[in-house]
Amino acid sequence: MQQSLSEEKVFKDPVHKYVYVQDEVIWNLINTKEFQRLRRIRQLGATYLTFHGAEHSRFSHSLGVYEITRKIISQFERNAYPDWPAEERQVSLCAALLHDLGHGPFSHSIEQIFDTHHEDWTCRILLEDTEVNQILRAVSADFPQRVASIICKTYEKPIVVNLISSQMDADRMDYLLRDAYFTGVNYGTFDLERILRLLRPHQGKIVVKESGMHAVEDYLMSRYQMYWQVYFHPVTRSSEIILRQIFRRAKELYKSGYQFEFMIAPFGRLFDGSLTVDDYLKLDEALAQTVFTQWMAERDELLAGLCRRFLNRRLYKYITMEEPDEALWSSIRKCFAELGLHPDYHLEIDFPFDLPYDVYRPDAKEGRERPPIVLLDAFDQLAEISDKSDIIRSITGLHQGRYHLYYPEEELRHKAEYMPKHIRELFGL
Amino acid sequence: MQQSLSEEKVFKDPVHKYVYVQDEVIWNLINTKEFQRLRRIRQLGATYLTFHGAEHSRFSHSLGVYEITRKIISQFERNAYPDWPAEERQVSLCAALLHDLGHGPFSHSIEQIFDTHHEDWTCRILLEDTEVNQILRAVSADFPQRVASIICKTYEKPIVVNLISSQMDADRMDYLLRDAYFTGVNYGTFDLERILRLLRPHQGKIVVKESGMHAVEDYLMSRYQMYWQVYFHPVTRSSEIILRQIFRRAKELYKSGYQFEFMIAPFGRLFDGSLTVDDYLKLDEALAQTVFTQWMAERDELLAGLCRRFLNRRLYKYITMEEPDEALWSSIRKCFAELGLHPDYHLEIDFPFDLPYDVYRPDAKEGRERPPIVLLDAFDQLAEISDKSDIIRSITGLHQGRYHLYYPEEELRHKAEYMPKHIRELFGL
Amino acid sequence: MQQSLSEEKVFKDPVHKYVYVQDEVIWNLINTKEFQRLRRIRQLGATYLTFHGAEHSRFSHSLGVYEITRKIISQFERNAYPDWPAEERQVSLCAALLHDLGHGPFSHSIEQIFDTHHEDWTCRILLEDTEVNQILRAVSADFPQRVASIICKTYEKPIVVNLISSQMDADRMDYLLRDAYFTGVNYGTFDLERILRLLRPHQGKIVVKESGMHAVEDYLMSRYQMYWQVYFHPVTRSSEIILRQIFRRAKELYKSGYQFEFMIAPFGRLFDGSLTVDDYLKLDEALAQTVFTQWMAERDELLAGLCRRFLNRRLYKYITMEEPDEALWSSIRKCFAELGLHPDYHLEIDFPFDLPYDVYRPDAKEGRERPPIVLLDAFDQLAEISDKSDIIRSITGLHQGRYHLYYPEEELRHKAEYMPKHIRELFGL
Amino acid sequence: MQQSLSEEKVFKDPVHKYVYVQDEVIWNLINTKEFQRLRRIRQLGATYLTFHGAEHSRFSHSLGVYEITRKIISQFERNAYPDWPAEERQVSLCAALLHDLGHGPFSHSIEQIFDTHHEDWTCRILLEDTEVNQILRAVSADFPQRVASIICKTYEKPIVVNLISSQMDADRMDYLLRDAYFTGVNYGTFDLERILRLLRPHQGKIVVKESGMHAVEDYLMSRYQMYWQVYFHPVTRSSEIILRQIFRRAKELYKSGYQFEFMIAPFGRLFDGSLTVDDYLKLDEALAQTVFTQWMAERDELLAGLCRRFLNRRLYKYITMEEPDEALWSSIRKCFAELGLHPDYHLEIDFPFDLPYDVYRPDAKEGRERPPIVLLDAFDQLAEISDKSDIIRSITGLHQGRYHLYYPEEELRHKAEYMPKHIRELFGL
Predict the structure, then answer these.
(1) Residue B366 lies in a domain
(2) Amino acid D361: pLDDT
């Protein structure tokens, strides 16, 4: 059932040096077409327009999450910790490897517009008729469902869910290191080897030995820096706004019966919400970019212009501001409309925020909690990390963030003389 | 004419830490749609199927070549070397930035099939009606032509050509470091800072101070290792063979009048050789992958199968062999034909080779020489490096390489019992 | 006066890759015997007993501080900022290079016992009859005094003092990076290149452009981590306690007329406070270790034992505790005395603390303020960093630290049965 | 007998990230005074005068060799290779840790003068009355002798000797990486993880899987570069010459009955060849430097001058030349004598050489062969690496090297006018 490969397979990986595969089922999963598709989905969406090195795919991240999980479990096994359920190794590794399988092209932008969730697609790919499902089913009839329930966080043993989904899980540890490596920033580095060595299975969850407290602090600071320096970078946000607007406009046109010069199979079904798993698997970033390239020649100037902006990197500029009150906001919209701009497209307000760490953090995206980080002291006592670490306590709950207003600068500057003075000054024109 | 930006612009780069832009013309060139298109062409083609980190684009490499060139010229200017023609700064930086502008999707595979050359396309993009041309023309009427002639190596001052095209030029120095970084191997690292510090303009060419000899040896060894470990990796070669076969088959079908289920604008014109610059600029790897995805459903099973192989990474396996004689080769082809396999597609022999260093190396690809590396000693005497370095002399002219025979393993194994014994054994079946 | 070397000199440096020397006076200063002596003083005192890699000397750190200062000034000159007094280049570089010249062996431990200050010794070496003084005087008669007053922070132009002494100066930036490199921890890394690029001379001080705020946050976090993970590591503190006790005991014996089996010139004069500059320059860590080696055979068992502890790394163990009240403290001391241990030597309480950042930080050691970090926004407005950065504000003034009680574990365990129960339990015996 | 620690101990190491200790005997050996003494012996002798970062000690190298050996054996055990004698684990780890125990201060220079060998001292420390011996004897009566015979290469199982002494052993792999790290050069880096993974125990020796051939090539090239760039650096050689002359002169004076102003216990016995193990263990680099400092004031001007040269880094300069014939050599010596210089001290010729790789390399220093590197192919066939690798074959036996003549430049320049013209020109005066 849990067959080993006759010879260990190895992937060269810039973050972990090597990724080791010893189980046949893992090897087979990597070779499915659904998993190979992740090579065509970038890990950081449109971030490469800000950090040109960030062209890495979800394929490499998925291998990395698998590798970290494998290392954690190996450590647990090597030390024979009684609180680790040894029989969960295989299912944990599969869940780690496959947790991002349902990501689509530029998911963060698409999901908002089409009200889909990549976790749901992950589960459908695991459970419907796919190569991945076939390999999982060969392990046992309920195996696909077990893997899916770990990813959906409903698995019966929370310790397994913890491994790939908590405030310091294999997923986050890999993406912080990986995104730092590929963007080239040095904010995301922390001492992975030390943290892995100090994790312990303990009464149904994973905790950290207290001697690792400073390493965890360092991890949380890295996380904080990565959010503000990379993930929330205003240029990246601008690219994401353009992307979202492309999809919003195209859907609007489609619904209104507009005849596209160019349309291709899964895109239509994306717009009318009738995507099958098969369609979904054809949706990758190569396709999205190809469609955008074609749409640069659409008759609808709004859509064509947005596509040109994205592909040729002519992004919206932004101004930083205090939270605008209703009156100011309507006067800006009104002004844009009067200038012949489109207030629903040429104007977007953005307020990114993230908590560096929160005791019980209601995870906005998933609507589910991410368990806090718990320390285990020399006397086997547990404590939530912000009880022990002054620096973490002092930043817990701290949220930072400013309002950014995005808009097409050239168009606006062109028309500056027709704008009311207070709005013109707001935009520095 | 040579306008500085009011404020230096900076790109975060994982290889050089930062790329600095001080000239307005460079900034404007980076923002053209033709240059932004390089984000959609991978630097190492299909290598990401072997080294999953190698997903970086020609965009980042082009910035890197620019940055190295900028550093070399800054050093020359800082020391006011009389042999450096100071007026060549701007044209050199433009040529460095734009030297790869004409690369297409998976160029190495496409070029062989369609008999095109990316250098020619680079020149057409520089000289025809493009955004890049417009910016260059604003400098002076003959500026586009000057940039082009540096890239074509016909420029009147060889020292400028040397900068971006010699056996140790900004192009090679960047790609060795960059490809090593993104694949994650540590073969490609050498002491760039030391080499840059020891370069000298000298009587119309660029030479290296003799005290840098060991650093140059190290660079040549890195180069040797990168060729054999990365660029010529048999799995990469297998992917390239599949790619080449896809284009070969599609062209064959097109010429024969086959009705494609899916065809899209520039692809048709690629097949009948009528591409314009506009068409060419639409050809990127997103488009190629989209077309392959669609072709997985073509009626022509050969084409469909090759596309599936590429996208789902079901590559040909290979055996290593001595150079096969004519008799063996025909018996293998005959056997393949008898088994119902296609000898022109299911069988390909490959013999990659590279010289670690050659005194006068006729550069196969370009049919033009790459000048040798010349050392300058304390008494201002010049010497070709292999005269001074025992280790380089001992490997000069050394070429290594073995024949690899690529084939579809599953199909063959399936039919092993019908193969002649000596061929079956050759394939280890 | 400000003579350039005919050819730039270069030192290979693991932290900055290379250190560049262009001025003859710098080159000559490095070659003085007083500066070469810094090779025999470790940068981190006894820390190598905790982190075995930390064997680097003040020599390499001094070169590093010089190099960072050189880079900052080069940037100021390249951009021709009017607020930078260009004539201060040479004196600034000399002060950067020489700022630690007066450090003695294990200074932190020695200074407390002998009430000396390395800054005072630095000034004496600069101003009295030394090779360094001779070279500085050759620049101009008042040059030695100018260099000294920068190091003493009394120089007339605070911007120059700022360079090497503020909350983010060349000194701190080098030691954080260097100590992280040699210990092997990855806490001390931050984006030096970015910070250097965003420093600006502004109205008599050095400020940071606001766009560098996150990089400064990262620097402060690195600093915080280095303090707690490296500089205040309990094992290091234990080594320092042993060192201090060796010097304390030896001085005590010397004052009491004890006849040492082994005594060597500058050590006697150290004890009676009659050190000359010449003597002081002979005091290095080689001498200290040699003396300790000889003292392992002294008749005074307390001194001999402390020396053995230090050289053979048999350090005191420690327990962590709340601040002990007077009653507990005397009962422990009393217990130690009754057990035949020496309460003044076998018992030491330690409470290390550091502020991650403070708005106006009265620098404990020097009794003088270190100026805060000031940001310069796009409208040329200044703001203290904790006004802008939420995370820095939230940790400002935060000080952490616990009491540690150090003691000889073997001796105590041996006598555990004779200890009062509450004290025995306190020590976990 | 082979007791595990209740909890794994960990050392932070810049090269291997962490060094893991699981066995009690290893932990106890590290804590002996003889092993702690290695902290006071630099790994690279006087090299820190050339590369200021090279201040690391044999202590950290010894831990590194232990760690690499531990990793190799773990891999063998994890895969349960039948050709690995599992019972040899403990003795191998001890030999790896202790192999350099007998190194003295600046051993390379001392050994030549006093005709001692650090290997002999290592064995004496293992076998005579020391803390190390006591711990080893506790394992079993013959255990000290077994460890010693591995280090002396006379152990009955060559595979164990291979681990720490062959052309690619744990010793060399650690020192190349470590010396590269601390000097800051990037020549010494190779893919340790890959090599370790591909080592195999095979019929009494350790071989490398053929797929690791390029990684081995890279290792050999690193080795070659490190020899020429670091170990044989002419400035380092100059420091070593000065060191050797100090010891030579002091011995000469001692033998002639000269009354030293300063002499200290083990030094006298070093000169008359009566050192005991106890004396030897007191000989460390702190002591050597202290003695040199005192000797700067000796009446013998030759000795005093050499000590000043070493401590203040006033080294001999050198000229590069072809092998001088007898006539030239005597005329130079004669000229030096006539100028009042001392031909036996002020003139030294040096010809460093190393083979990048040799099939059967008679190891000059030890007078014993280091076994060649053997590859194991997929069909279990063995081949010496130079049979398979073109590049290694082409450099095998290649030896490079030039004659350097070292001399005191200031003295010579001073007297240049009195020198015969051909000699003056030879020295460029």
Answers:
(1) no
(2) 46
Strand, coil or helix: C23: strand
The CA-based angle D62-D64-D70, given to 5 degrees, is 105
For D94-204, where are the E strands, in sequence order? 199-202
The total of other beta-carbon atoms located within 10 Å of residue A417's CB is: 8
**Residue B201 and residue B59 in one domain:** yes
Residue D7, token pair as written in the block: 């909890």
CB-neighbour burial class of residue A156 (10 A; exposed 0-12, middle 13-18, buried 19+):
exposed
Distance of CA C180 to the CA centre of its chain: 14
- Determine if residue B380 is left, alpha or beta; phi over 0 gives left, psi from -120 to 50 gives alpha, anything else beta: left
- Mean pLDDT calculated for residue range D326-343: 92
CB C34 within 8 Å of CB C140: no
Give per-residue pLDDT as tens, B7-19: 889 999 999 999 9
Candidate from B17, B194, B197 with C-beta closest to C193 = B17
Taking an 8 Å cut-off on Cβ atoms, the answer to whether C12 and D183 are in contact is yes
Residues of B in contact with D217 (CB under 8 A): 225
Q: Give residue-wise pLDDT tens across range A343-395.
A: 999 999 988 876 666 554 434 444 446 788 999 998 899 999 988 888 888 87
A215, A231, A247 — which closes off a domain? A231
Would C366 be classed as within a structural domain? no
Question: Is residue B296 scored above 60 in pLDDT?
Answer: yes
Give residue A2's pLDDT. 66
Closest CA–CA distance from residue A84 to any residue of chain B (Å): 32
Q: Which residues on B lie below 8 Å from C215 (Cβ)?
A: none
Are C143 and C63 found together in one domain? Answer: yes
Around B241, how many Cα atoms within 13 Å sit in the side-chain half-sphere? Answer: 26
Contact in structure between A350 and A240 (CB atoms under 8 Å): no
Do D128 and D251 fall within a single domain? no
- For residue A253, the domain's CATH number is 1.20.1250.30
* CA–CA distance, C180 with C172 (Å, rounded to integer): 12
Decide the pairing of beta strands C317-321 and C403-407: antiparallel
Q: How many CB pairs under 8 A join A and C?
A: 50
Confidence (pTM): 0.94
Residues C172, C62, single domain; the answer is yes
Phi, psi of C304, rounded to the nearest 5 degrees: -60, -45
> Based on the domain organization, do D212 and D265 belong to the same domain?
no
Q: Rg of chain C over CA atoms, in angstroms?
A: 24
Residue C38 DSSP symbol? G
Number of helical (H) and strand (E) elements in chain D, helices listed first: 22, 11
Q: Which domain holds residue D56?
A: 4-231+375-390
Contact call for A400 and C390, based on CB within 8 A: yes
Whole-angstrom distance, CA of residue A372 vs CA of residue A207? 10
pLDDT in tens, A223-253: 988 988 899 999 999 999 999 999 999 999 9
Burial class (CB in 10 A: 0-12, 13-18, 19+), D289: buried
Q: What Cα–Cα distance (Å) separates residue D49 from each residue in C60, C281, D312, D313?
A: 11, 19, 10, 7
Q: Which residue type occupies C80?
A: A
Do C311 and C245 share a structural domain? yes
For position D107, what pLDDT does the model report?
Answer: 86
Separation CA B194–CA B386 (nearest Å)? 20
Report pLDDT for D362.
39
Q: Which residues of B touch D228 (CB under 8 A)?
A: 214
| Count of structural domains, chain C | 2
**B62 and B133, same structural domain?**
yes
Specify whether the CB–CB gap between D292 and D285 falls below 8 A: no
Q: Are residues C224 and C275 in the same domain?
A: no
Average pLDDT for B147-153: 95
* DSSP character string of C281-301: HH--HHHHHHHHHHHTT-S-H
Using a CB-CB distance cutoff of 8 angstroms, which residues of chain C are in contact with residue A189? 186, 189
Q: Which of C189, C190, C395 sits opposite A391 (nearest CB)?
A: C395
